[in-house]
């Protein structure tokens, strides 16, 4: 048996809007063959794992680092220049949560955590 991860799916109140945020962050393109508000897929141009967003009416963001609603998953995104990418993602609507020497933790516009990591 062969098993592979094809897509990581994040719950969202506004899937197409959140997909737009991550499209700007990653440079990936929105898959156009699904024109629905409840589902959006960003296609990995390298052929790896795609990133998708599905509507969840009861979505509540993590309260990380507090554990009231712990994060269940987060994305680690590799970048060449932490400072430049930080300015870019903050300009797109991310919120800085923590700064470390080799990575930084952010919340996306809906409150999912993600990290920018020095390559």
UniProtKB/TrEMBL annotation:
Coiled-coil region(s): none
SUPFAM superfamilies per UniProt: Glyoxalase/Bleomycin resistance protein/Dihydroxybiphenyl dioxygenase
Domain annotation Glyoxalase-like: ranges: 8-117
UniProt protein name: Glyoxalase-like domain-containing protein
